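Morning. Coffee machine broken again, so started the prediction first thing and wrote up yesterday's gels while waiting. Chain of 210 residues, entered below exactly as on the submission form.
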Amino acid sequence: MSDDQPVIEERENGPFVVKQLTDLKLSDGTAAECKPVMALCRCGQSNNKPFCDGTHKAIGFDSTGADVSTKDRVSSYEGADVTVYYNKLLCSHAGECARRAGNVFNPNQRPWIQPDNGTVDEIREVVEACPSGALRWSKPGGDSELLAAENVSITVEKNGPYRVSNIAIAVDQWAQGQSEKKYVLCRCGKSGNKPFCDGTHLDEGWSDEG
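Came back before lunch.
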């Protein structure tokens, strides 16, 4: 990896240190001024979110993951024209799937993913929009596809995680089906799957103003 390629480094019990990033979008949709090295908060309590202000030291932030109750497992949902793959451990509960194709992705139905209720194009759009990479798709007999964007960026989700696109990060373990091209990083400090988001921010009602 060349020195001018963006990279994310974890600091033990501290922030994410991002180097050489040129595209950081804030939660209000504006572009942040990028510096060669930036420290992004991941304890959830900085007074200067999304940037680190040292609060992690005062609160004794622990950057290790807690006990994970969700299994690291890829489930498949087969339809006549398309198969959808889903790893719940990676899901950040962004809700893009239900918003874009509630006829296919409906938590109130069993199974909650029913590919035959929609079109291949609808499912492709959802997989592309899913920020966490929890969803993939394939045609019958084909290889699963993630559909990651080509841009190199970090987007700060309002009251949610960092949405990362095409930036390298060194971690001890990747989950099943997880891609290094598209993933979400915990920003609330509460995920059981640190450094990645597992949707706990939503369960806990975490917010940027908290």
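The domain at 74-138 is CATH 3.30.70.20 (Alpha-Beta Plaits). Going to sketch it on the whiteboard this afternoon.
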